[in-house]
Amino acid sequence: MLRPIVETTTVERTVLVPIRCALEVFKAMTMHNSVVASHRLAETMRAYALGLPEAFEDHPWGENVAKVGKKVFVFFGMPEAEQPFGLTVKLPDSYDMAMSLPWAKNPGYRMDRGHWVWLQPPEDAPLDMLTEWITESYRAVAPKRLVGSLDPQPEA
After folding, report:
1. Inside any domain, residue 18
2. What pLDDT band is residue 94 in, cutting at 50, 70 and 90?
3. DSSP secondary structure of 83-145
4. Range of 72's domain?
């Protein structure tokens, strides 16, 4: 938490130091609003991804990712609070539809060849669409035995 430093040696310091701190607090508050909203979405998406069969969290390159086996199926980005929520998923089927959205971009760094999409969804983005995309990414990299466990079993 930022605390204003009040020094009473001169009038200049008494006024300028709290103003400088107030500007820092204002910047933190305005950034905090978008981070808090996106933090809720981030936690929901992270919990969903890690709830898939044999999924686990890892931190290669200092980045938060969800993996199944040795393969990443969701990149959640660096754990920096200053940045709004974003995720990168592999979408072999929904790639074109996802890229048509204003908050979807090509992630670059050679990931565009594999139908990877970087998403920075707004707070009101449809959760069912985002969870479907995480599932699609999981299906794209998971072993067939695990993908089969996602499919509904026919009733006998």
Report:
1. no
2. very high
3. SPP-EEEE-TTTHHHHHTSTTEE---TT-GGGTEEEE---TTS-HHHHHHHHHHHHHHHS-HH
4. 37-149
